[in-house]
């Protein structure tokens, strides 16, 4: 379980600096260091187990359904990285204590730093791909906060944004790649993924997954062509640079490649992409570093070049190369962290990092100069220092390359070339800063830094020497266990000794030294040559690309989202054409095998009428009243056709809904303009007609194709069980109130909600009420004609009786709550029309809102009643009784449910229409100004 | 008969969609109503067409598919509720915005192309 605590302690430790910031700088630093120190102790306690080849795993269920576990894993590779992250992290905490000025918020800085440390630990210890990715993203975010720590500076903000954009975009690619890997393997468990390399490499999606994962690794590790963010991240405080660019952030990408080395490497594709990217980065970084005048800029490009070197090693087709890569990860972390810290000391004590002004600092800070010189010598690959050992291994491996066929000799040559530049820029770092004449116009008089600021540098430089002289003793086991994790235990023999005899790699080293010195000596000519090229500022290029993308998306957005509903509608319909029409292209035969019904003359007449009235509705759509009348004809024919095709319930429903709808539309039309202005251009009319006709054609074709094919229906069940199970012979009604009662319950709820929504819309609506028709003729004063009043009044009881009859017989004959409710509503609406709202109001005191609620409640209680009998919601009950006079009759609980439906339908319909009708009685506003 | 039915559904769809694409609210509401007729007929026909076979047990020898009928029945009622909502919304829109254009504003020059308008 102690494995859980390794990332958890720093996670909790994020709060420590924030809480202790007020105690003083030294106290704050100590309290902050406590959590990582404890974690480091835990890591070290695991050393015996890890060195003996064990893999420690702890895991906890998190979202098991998604294959997500909170799972950590400690093997040689994770151990090495955890050691680097925590060890160098602790040194950085000490260093930052002296580096940060009193103005900087120390608590905030440490909190970001520990957050970043937690994220890095999470990456290296994760045993689940998705979990790994989450920590990966956390490093992007926390590094953004660290780089932009001095957010008052433009470079800080821009550099941080660039780093976030590049690594964040890479992170998305990584996520896609990890998901793909998870799909291929069938598990997100790292343990499983690592051991199923053959399965992954044989899979068709392997190239895609590989490229996506490498995109993530390359962006993070600043590989060409994504290297440009790293130099701009140098705007961060130097402790951040020392941490992010030596042991952590940029090493995360390297770690990822090493972690997935067993699963992904071993193919031609891997070697080509990884080694070529590494080689390009190595050369580019080494060459550019020489020309940087900023010390940190030089170190930044040197970092890029060393990352390229490690990538190149990982891309080589030998196991020894992988071992060399891991060895160089250790060595680079050690000497680069110390160099960044030295650069920070120089900046801190001399006030500038410009090498054109910094000269001859040896006289002012000989001690720091000595430390920096040892570290720089290690970077250059001078013997007896750790950098020499891994560089030697690197040279040896370049000689065994066959990736490029007969051109493979280029790799060692180019590697030597990079090493030459590496020697040259290391030499420049030493000579230009500490010797080379006198300092020019420094803001401060340089002096040695505070005692303890040098301690971290001393420790790291000491390690450079120790590893360089006693490699086997110091890092032998560490290197072996990490290599064994990367190579899955299959570690070949290798030698860590300093002297391998006089061989080709040593010659390459000597050549690099000699030519490095020569190049540095003739640097003025090179500088002159380089100054002919216009220097491109990656920041400007990057910003302009971002701006370009922003403008592009804005343009697309403005095109698609211009606020015009008409436009949106058209786009939706065009998509309908694409998605509904496309499958039809593959349907070879429209007509199916089912026997079709014969045409009858009646149906032809009806269809003609339907088509004509539909056309009339369109043609006269500007004359709104006329189009409403023709619309009602369409509705009538639709209800007749329901009746014709054996759907009496539908016919009754459609008929009564038709009455209500047309009444409603007429009422609404009273408040709306009577005519539609002619607005559409002929082109638009033609376009809309085309779209409409194509969709109509598609829908008609689909409909025909389905209707003429045999049917596989589940309806047999309903037909068989309607009577024995639901106690009714009208199957449609039994389905509504019994089999699918829950659906119906939802429907009446929607109806009620719509009615309430309408009620709120009508409330305080500003309407204009015309005093006459469109021709200016005033309405008749006799708004409630005598004949209508008399007839409707006598009709009311009859209509209510009919609706009661329809309601009661609904279970066995066409009818039921929906239809009865609509008939009742129509009868009452007729009273409103005949007598006016003022007349009805005192006579019909029903609060329709309450009525809706009661209707829904009745239905719900009926449904819930079945719980009392331990049955699921809405189980119905029925039985037969006999009473004198009436004879035998049936009682079913479904009728109570249907009553709820009935009440809801009546109340909702009346709530809508009566409230709309009330608008006519309010005082009339003035004529609308045209 | 099936061909005629499908033809009618197609015509209703065409007319409905053309009206839905108009620029004023009322024709759009009328178009939606036409479209809902078409949709209801379409859904209903998923149970295939049959004559003289209402799904009432004991009334005939064969029965039409009752399931689409039950679905369409509720669809008709909900369709009414939605039509009502839209038409009231269009009234409210006119009251609040001063016009009955679907975009909520009348374009300056209706002869302009869409691109120029945006």
Automatic annotation (TrEMBL), chain B:
<protein>
    <submittedName>
        <fullName>Mrp complex subunit C1</fullName>
    </submittedName>
</protein>
<keyword id="KW-0812">Transmembrane</keyword>
<feature type="transmembrane region" description="Helical">
    <location>
        <begin position="67"/>
        <end position="89"/>
    </location>
</feature>
<feature type="transmembrane region" description="Helical">
    <location>
        <begin position="28"/>
        <end position="47"/>
    </location>
</feature>
<feature type="region of interest" description="Disordered">
    <location>
        <begin position="95"/>
        <end position="118"/>
    </location>
</feature>
<dbReference type="InterPro" id="IPR050601">
    <property type="entry name" value="CPA3_antiporter_subunitC"/>
</dbReference>
<dbReference type="GO" id="GO:0005886">
    <property type="term" value="C:plasma membrane"/>
</dbReference>
<comment type="similarity">
    <text>Belongs to the CPA3 antiporters (TC 2.A.63) subunit C family.</text>
</comment>
<keyword id="KW-1133">Transmembrane helix</keyword>
<dbReference type="Pfam" id="PF00420">
    <property type="entry name" value="Oxidored_q2"/>
</dbReference>
<keyword id="KW-0472">Membrane</keyword>
<dbReference type="InterPro" id="IPR039428">
    <property type="entry name" value="NUOK/Mnh_C1-like"/>
</dbReference>
<keyword id="KW-1003">Cell membrane</keyword>
<feature type="transmembrane region" description="Helical">
    <location>
        <begin position="6"/>
        <end position="21"/>
    </location>
</feature>
């Amino acid at each position: 379980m102690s494995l859980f605590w390794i990332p958890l302690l720093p996670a909790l430790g994020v709060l420590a600096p924030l809480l202790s910031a007020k105690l003083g700088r030294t106290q704050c630093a100590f309290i902050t260091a406590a959590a990582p120190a404890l974690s480091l102790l835990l890591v070290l306690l695991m050393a015996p187990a890890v060195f003996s080849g064990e893999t420690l795993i702890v895991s906890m269920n998190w979202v098991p359904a998604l294959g997500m576990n909170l799972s950590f894993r400690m093997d040689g590779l994770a151990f090495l990285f955890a050691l680097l992250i925590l060890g160098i992290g602790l040194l950085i905490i000490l260093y930052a204590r002296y580096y940060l000025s009193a103005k900087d918020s120390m608590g905030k800085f440490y909190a970001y730093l520990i957050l970043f440390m937690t994220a890095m630990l999470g990456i290296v210890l994760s045993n689940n791909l998705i979990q790994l990715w989450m920590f990966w993203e956390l490093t992007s975010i926390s590094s953004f906060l660290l780089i932009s720590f001095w957010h008052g500076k433009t470079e800080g903000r821009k550099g941080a944004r660039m780093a976030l954009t590049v690594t964040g975009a890479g992170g998305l690619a990584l996520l896609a790649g990890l998901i793909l890997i998870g799909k291929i393997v069938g598990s997100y468990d790292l343990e499983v993924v690592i051991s199923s390399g053959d399965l992954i490499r044989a899979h068709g999606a392997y190239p895609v997954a590989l490229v996506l994962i490498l995109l993530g690794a390359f962006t993070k590790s600043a590989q060409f062509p994504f290297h440009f963010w790293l130099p701009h991240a140098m705007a961060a405080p130097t402790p951040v640079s020392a941490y992010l660019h030596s042991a952590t952030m940029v090493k995360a990408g390297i770690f990822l490649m090493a972690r997935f080395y067993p699963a992904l490497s071993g193919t031609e594709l891997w070697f080509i992409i990884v080694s070529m990217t590494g080689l390009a980065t190595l050369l580019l970084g080494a060459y550019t570093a020489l020309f940087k005048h900023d010390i940190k800029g030089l170190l930044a490009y040197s970092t890029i070049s060393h990352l390229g070197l490690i990538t190149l090693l990982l891309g080589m087709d030998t196991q020894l190369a992988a071992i060399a890569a891991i060895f160089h990860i250790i060595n680079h972390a050690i000497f680069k962290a110390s160099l960044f810290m030295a650069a920070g000391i120089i900046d801190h004590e001399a006030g500038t990092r410009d090498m054109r002004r910094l000269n001859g600092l040896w006289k002012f800070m000989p001690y720091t100069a000595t430390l920096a010189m040892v570290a720089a010598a290690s970077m250059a690959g001078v013997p007896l220092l750790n950098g020499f050992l891994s560089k030697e291994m690197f040279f040896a491996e370049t000689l065994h390359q066959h990736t490029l066929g007969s051109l493979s000799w280029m790799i060692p040559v180019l590697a030597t070339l990079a090493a030459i530049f590496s020697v040259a820029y290391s030499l420049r770092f030493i000579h230009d800063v500490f010797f080379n004449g006198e300092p020019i116009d420094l803001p401060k008089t340089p002096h040695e830094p505070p005692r303890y600021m040098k301690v971290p540098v001393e420790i790291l430089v000491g390690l450079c020497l120790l590893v360089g002289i006693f490699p086997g003793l110091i890092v032998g086991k560490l290197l072996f266990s990490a290599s064994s994790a990367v190579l899955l235990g299959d570690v070949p023999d290798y030698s860590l000794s300093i002297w391998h005899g006089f061989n080709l790699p040593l010659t390459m080293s000597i050549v690099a030294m000699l030519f490095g010195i020569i190049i540095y000596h003739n640097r003025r000519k090179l500088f002159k040559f380089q100054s002919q090229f216009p220097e491109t500022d990656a920041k400007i290029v990057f910003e302009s690309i971002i701006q370009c993308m922003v403008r592009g998306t804005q343009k697309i957005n403005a095109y698609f989202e211009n606020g015009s509903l008409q436009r949106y509608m058209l786009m939706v319909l065009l998509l309908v054409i694409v998605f509904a029409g496309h499958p039809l292209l593959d349907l070879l035969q429209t007509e199916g095998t089912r026997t079709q019904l014969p045409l009858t003359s009646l149906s032809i007449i009806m269809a003609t009428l339907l088509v004509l009235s539909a056309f009339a509705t369109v043609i006269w759509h500007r004359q709104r009243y006329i189009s409403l009348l023709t619309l009602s004809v369409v509705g009538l024919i639709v209800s007749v056709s329901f009746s014709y095709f054996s759907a009496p319930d539908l016919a009754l429903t459609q008929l009564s809904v038709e009455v209500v709808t047309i009444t409603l539309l007429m009422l609404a039309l009273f408040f709306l303009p009577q005519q539609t202005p002619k607005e559409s251009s002929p082109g638009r009319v033609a376009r809309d007609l085309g779209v409409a006709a194509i969709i109509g054609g598609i829908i008609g074709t689909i409909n025909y194709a389905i209707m003429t094919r045999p049917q596989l229906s589940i309806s047999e069940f309903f037909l068989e069980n309607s009577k024995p199970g639901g106690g009714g012979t009208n199957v449609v009604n039994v389905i509504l109130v019994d089999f699918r009662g829950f659906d119906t319950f939802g429907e009446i709820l929607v109806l009620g909600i719509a009615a309430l929504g309408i009620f709120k819309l009508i409330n305080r609506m500003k309407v204009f009420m015309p005093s006459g028709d469109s021709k200016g003729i005033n309405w008749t004063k006799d708004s409630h004609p005598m004949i209508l009043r008399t007839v409707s009044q006598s009709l009311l009881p009859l209509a209510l009786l009919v609706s009661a009859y329809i309601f009661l017989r609904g279970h066995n004959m066409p009818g039921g709550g929906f239809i009865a409710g609509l008939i009742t509503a129509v009868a009452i609406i007729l009273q409103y029309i005949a007598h006016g709202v003022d007349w009805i109001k005192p006579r019909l005191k029903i609060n329709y809102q309450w009525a809706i609620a009661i209707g829904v409640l009745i239905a719900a209680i009926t449904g819930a009643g079945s719980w009392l009998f331990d049955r699921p919601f809405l189980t119905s009950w029925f039985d037969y009784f006999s009473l004198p006079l009436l004879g035998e009759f049936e009682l079913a609980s479904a009728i109570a449910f249907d009553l709820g439906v009935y009440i809801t339908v009546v109340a909702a319909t009346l709530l809508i229409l009566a409230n709309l009708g009330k608008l006519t009685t309010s005082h009339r506003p003035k004529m609308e100004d045209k | 008969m099936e061909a005629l039915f499908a033809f009618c559904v197609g015509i209703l769809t065409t007319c409905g969609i053309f009206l839905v694409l108009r620029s004023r609210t009322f024709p759009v509401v009328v178009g939606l109503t036409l479209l809902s007729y078409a949709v209801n007929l379409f859904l209903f026909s998923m149970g295939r067409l049959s004559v003289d076979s209402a799904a009432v047990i004991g009334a005939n020898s064969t029965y039409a598919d009752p399931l689409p009928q039950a679905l369409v029945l509720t669809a008709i009622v909900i369709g009414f509720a939605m039509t009502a909502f839209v038409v009231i919304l269009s009234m409210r829109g006119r009251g609040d915005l001063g016009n009955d254009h679907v975009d909520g504003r009348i374009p300056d020059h209706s002869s302009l192309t869409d691109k120029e308008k945006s």
